């Protein structure tokens, strides 16, 4: 079955469809890295995205339901050059293509992914239609415009309901308490908190500052997510009311919201950072780390500095801010996923998180 990826600028690519059929629409992003494909497809912060995998071969490690970041497939579709039909000795019980079929995730195989990734980087991230329907380019673009309006006009369509928003866990004894403003956190984020004996209460982005403070948390954490960066003014207002009253740390989109609450002005990137091999450097020590990221938001160091903040991490490829702290207001943010509690503690420069 043939399928096509059609960008809203009219550029189209054809390949073999797998997994499902029909129409899917979302923002096409280039995903860098040699692993984490299933995790990315099920991560809530990839809601409304079409993932273009830059790795030549996808799915060699297979798929396992235990690796899912949520209880649903969140990506609108996936695009790859070659889909592995087998799994390695340490792989899961099914091939990645079979996983896509079982979850009705529409994909394209045999696509020129390097060319597509170059198109995204040169023209910027834009909406695209993934389709198996036979029609004219004009009809496809009209369908894309309709789907885009239906989705982007209602940010609530990005929200993940169920386990993540209702998540809570209390340790057997001791431990800190954190309130999570869950804009699209994956399961690994909560596993990190549990591993470090942190009791959490997770709520949606409309949680008020007074409700948060009534829980008397040791910290407030703002997760990554798939919302448009400018669609959550209420969450920014909540964070602003928390500043100086409780330590606040944001991850990914959450970091952009914390920066906005500090008075900075994050902007949309032409082509964001998506993948599991993004290099960042500690500006104080020069130490490098390879990080997992999913965001399309940039923050200028000068803008941050004027608000009393300081840059802690920078991207070694494009020089963008990857981590920051505002010590007086007890606020911090990272545009990369923490790989341990020590990352958050290092990021916050000693804030009591």
Summarize the structure.
This protein has 353 residues and is of the alpha/beta class.
Structure description:
This protein has helices at residues 37-41, 96-102, 113-123, 137-152, 187-195, 209-214, 233-242, 253-261, 301-306, 341-347, and strands at residues 2-7, 12-18, 23-31, 49-53, 57-58, 77-80, 82-83, 107-109, 127-131, 168-169, 177-181, 199-203, 219-222, 248-251, 267-282, 288-298, 310-315, 321-326, 331-334. Helices cover 24% and strands 30% of the residues. By secondary structure, it is an alpha/beta fold. It has a ten-stranded mixed sheet with strand order 10-12-11-13-14-19-18-17-15-16, with helices on both faces. A hairpin with a 4-residue loop joins strand 1 and strand 2 (12-18). The protein folds into two domains: 2-153, Glucose Oxidase, domain 1 (3-Layer(bba) Sandwich); 168-347, 3-Layer(aba) Sandwich (Rossmann fold), CATH 3.40.50.
Record keyword descriptors for this entry.
353 residues, alpha/beta, Glucose Oxidase, domain 1, Rossmann fold, 2 domains, 10 helices, 24% helix
SSE topology:
Elements: E1 2-7, E2 12-18, E3 23-31, H1 37-41, E4 49-53, E5 57-58, E6 77-80, E7 82-83, H2 96-102, E8 107-109, H3 113-123, E9 127-131, H4 137-152, E10 168-169, E11 177-181, H5 187-195, E12 199-203, H6 209-214, E13 219-222, H7 233-242, E14 248-251, H8 253-261, E15 267-282, E16 288-298, H9 301-306, E17 310-315, E18 321-326, E19 331-334, H10 341-347
Parallel strand pairs: 3-4, 4-6, 5-7, 6-8, 11-12, 11-13, 13-14, 14-19
Antiparallel strand pairs: 1-2, 1-9, 2-8, 3-9, 10-12, 15-16, 15-17, 17-18, 18-19
Helix pairs in contact: 7-8
């Amino acid at each position: 079955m043939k399928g096509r990826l059609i960008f809203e600028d009219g550029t189209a690519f054809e390949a073999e469809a797998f997994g499902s059929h029909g129409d899917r629409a979302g923002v096409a992003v280039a995903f860098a890295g040699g692993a984490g494909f299933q995790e990315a497809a099920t991560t809530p912060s990839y809601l409304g995205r079409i993932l273009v995998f830059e790795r030549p071969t996808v799915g060699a490690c297979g798929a396992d339901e235990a690796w899912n970041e949520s209880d649903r497939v969140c990506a609108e579709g996936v695009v790859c050059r070659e889909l592995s039909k087998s799994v390695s000795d340490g792989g899961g019980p099914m091939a990645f293509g079979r996983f896509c079929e079982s979850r009705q995730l529409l994909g394209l195989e045999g696509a020129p992914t390097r060319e597509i990734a170059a198109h995204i980087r040169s023209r910027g991230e834009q909406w695209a239609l993934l389709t198996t329907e036979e029609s004219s380019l004009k009809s496809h673009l009209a369908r894309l415009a309709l789907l885009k309006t239906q989705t982007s006009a209602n940010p609530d369509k990005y929200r993940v309901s169920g386990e993540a928003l209702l998540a809570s866990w209390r340790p057997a004894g001791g431990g800190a308490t954190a309130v999570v403003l869950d804009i699209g956190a994956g399961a690994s984020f909560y596993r990190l908190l549990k591993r470090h004996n942190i009791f959490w209460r997770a709520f949606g982005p409309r949680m008020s500052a007074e409700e948060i403070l009534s829980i008397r948390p040791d910290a407030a954490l703002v997760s990554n997510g798939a919302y448009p960066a400018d669609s959550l003014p209420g969450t920014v207002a909540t964070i602003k009311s928390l500043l100086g009253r409780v330590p606040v740390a944001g991850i990914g989109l959450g970091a952009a919201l914390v920066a906005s609450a500090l008075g900075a002005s994050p902007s949309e990137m032409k082509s964001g950072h998506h993948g599991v091999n993004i290099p960042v450097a500690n500006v104080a020590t020069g130490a490098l780390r390879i990080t997992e990221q999913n965001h399309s938001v940039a923050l200028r160091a000068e803008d941050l500095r004027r608000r009393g903040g300081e840059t802690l991490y920078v991207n070694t490829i494009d020089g963008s801010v990857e981590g920051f702290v505002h010590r007086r207001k007890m606020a911090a943010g990272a545009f990369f996923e923490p790989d341990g509690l020590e990352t958050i503690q290092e990021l916050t420069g000693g804030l009591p998180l």
